[in-house]
């Protein structure tokens, strides 16, 4: 039997976190090559995406406890 919890459905939170992370990734991909060398800019964009996804996952998991 499922219990109703207060707040947003965890699946919606995961999808929202992934969507925001993807938007940040695309923004970094578009902005950083204009400022830095393309190779380093793409690498920083990937690391930025990984960091944003990790932080979003951490906060999503902490809310379940």
In percent terms, what proportion of residues is strand? under 5%
Form type: elongated
What share of the residues lie within helices? over 70%
Domain count: 1
Number of helices: 2
Strand pairing plus helix content: what structural class? mainly alpha
Order of helices and strands: HH
Give the CA-CA distance, first to last residue.
20 Å
What's the total count of β strands?
0
Provide the residue-averaged pLDDT: 84
Cα-atom radius of gyration: 16 Å
Low-pLDDT windows of residues:
none
Q: Largest sheet, if any? A: none
Task: Describe this structure as you would to a colleague.
With 65 residues, the chain is an all-alpha fold. The protein has one domain (10-64). It is 82% helix and 0% strand. The chain contains two helices and no strands. The chain has helices at 10-35, 38-64. The longest helix has 27 residues, at 38-64. The mean pLDDT is 84.
Give the helices and strands, then pairings:
Layout: H1 10-35, H2 38-64
Main attributes?
single chain; 65 residues; mainly alpha; 2 helices
In short:
This protein is mainly α and 65 residues long. It has two helices and no strands. The longest helix is centred in the C-terminal third of the chain and has 27 residues, at 38-64.
């Amino acid at each position: 039997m499922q219990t109703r919890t207060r707040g947003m459905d965890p699946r919606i939170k995961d999808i929202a976190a992934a969507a925001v992370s993807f938007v940040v990734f695309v923004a970094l991909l578009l902005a950083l090559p204009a400022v830095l060398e393309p190779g380093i800019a793409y690498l920083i964009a990937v690391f930025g995406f990984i960091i944003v996804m990790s932080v979003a996952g951490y906060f999503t998991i902490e809310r379940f406890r």
